[in-house]
Inverse folding.
């Protein structure tokens, strides 16, 4: 039985995940390499323009919030990059398993985990879930040895 549908969905989902992984990595690296003092000064000017009644105390609190925000973005960003990388690896393993038609159930499980790790409402996880459902629902045909022997004897 051909598993072209599952393979196609898995490959498309993997490509979308790789694109998202590259984008997330570039974003996190860019945010990590940003100069915090320069960023604070730029944001401080913007805030002062929008609300000139801010005091020095308000600006100090704002700078603390910017510091915490940069740290959070850095940590959360790297967590997202690692989960996307694991998702890409699982999806590649799922595509390999389903393309050989050796263990479609294991490929379905790998697709489900890849979908869970790559996000909830993105296109790639939806494709992985569809491929997983197809892996679980489509049955591999079982060869009936009695029928094959009978047909061979009649010829």
């Amino acid at each position: 039985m051909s598993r072209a549908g599952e393979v196609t969905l898995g490959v498309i989902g993997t490509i979308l995940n790789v694109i998202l992984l590259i984008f997330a990595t570039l974003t996190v690296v860019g945010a990590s390499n940003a100069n915090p003092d320069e960023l604070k000064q730029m944001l401080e000017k913007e805030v002062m323009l929008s609300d000139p009644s801010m005091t020095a105390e308000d600006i100090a609190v704002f700078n603390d919030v910017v510091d915490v925000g940069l740290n959070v973005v850095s940590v959360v960003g790297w967590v997202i990059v690692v989960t996307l990388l694991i998702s890409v690896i699982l999806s590649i393993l799922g595509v390999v398993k389903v393309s050989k038609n050796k263990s479609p159930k294991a490929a379905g499980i790998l697709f489900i985990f890849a979908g869970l790790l790559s996000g909830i409402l993105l296109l790639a996880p939806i494709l992985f879930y569809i491929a997983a459902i197809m892996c679980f629902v489509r049955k591999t045909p079982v060869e009936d040895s009695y029928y094959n022997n009978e047909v061979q004897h009649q010829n």
In short: The two ends are 25 Å apart (CA to CA). The first helix runs from residue 4 to 32. The mean pLDDT is 84. The helical segments are 4-32, 36-50, 56-99, 104-118, 123-137, 145-154.
